[in-house]
Design goal:
Length: 232
């Protein structure tokens, strides 16, 4: 069974976007995964197709209505649908490679793209939406975040990456950032490829790469070192 993604959005024309080319695009054409971009306005309950209203308690901006979103979610994810329901949100739990792998191993996902000031909390609670963040910054809407999440997931689906081993050695797969990479030419503007990489000694190469990964992680993301034990 292929991975089925349903995206609830006010801008369905943003999809598949970048997901329609390269690895993800080829996998989409091959049926390895499917994408259904659904217009939230189609579930509005008035003739003006209103999806938002002023925030209770006052304040700037607008809030996406619970009743409209509930109708959209129920349409895209009827009873019996086992796919997780995700809401792209800056206050959500940070997306990790572990969570990406969990999603890739599942049947798919329903992804709600928020807009304006946010989403009425009642629909989050009533429909069991899992809030997910791709970083500590604010976007104009959840669509770019949904594209990022789907790209991360789709590349892990069986057969999408030409060399599955390459995915196992990437950043975050073993709790560390990835080591530096080099290729021809051997000399570039006075900079040489590290000698160990052209030595042919695979044991020394593996040790060097591990050392470099640990160094970069300590320098750039020391928080990862305390997140989980290092894999030896």
């Amino acid at each position: 069974m292929s991975f089925a993604a349903s995206v609830l959005t006010l801008y369905p024309e943003m999809f598949p976007g970048a997901l329609g080319v390269s690895l993800a695009g080829r996998a989409l054409e091959a049926g390895t995964w499917s994408l259904d971009a659904i217009q939230i306005r189609d579930f509005a309950i008035d003739k003006h197709r209103t999806v938002d209203d002023t925030p209770a308690g006052g304040g700037a901006g607008m809030v996406m209505r619970a009743d409209v979103l509930a109708r959209a979610v129920d349409h895209a994810s009827p009873p019996g649908d086992s796919r997780p329901r995700l809401l792209m949100s800056p206050r959500g739990k940070p997306l990790t490679q572990t969570r990406v792998r969990e999603l890739a191993a599942g049947p798919g996902a329903l992804i709600l793209c928020g807009r304006f000031e946010g989403v009425d909390q009642r629909v989050i609670d009533a429909r069991g939406l899992e809030e997910v963040s791709i970083g500590d910054f604010i976007l104009s809407g959840g669509e770019p975040a949904a594209l990022v999440l789907l790209d991360a997931v789709v590349r892990l689906l069986p057969g999408v990456m030409g060399n599955a081993v390459s995915g196992e050695e990437e950043s975050f797969e073993n709790g560390l950032l990835e080591h530096p990479h080099y290729t021809r030419p051997q000399e570039f503007e006075g900079r040489e490829i590290p000698e160990v990489l052209i030595s042919g000694n695979h044991k020394k190469i593996a040790a060097w790469r591990r050392e470099q990964s640990e160094r970069l992680t300590k320098e750039r993301r020391p928080d990862l070192l305390g997140a989980q034990p290092l894999v030896k």
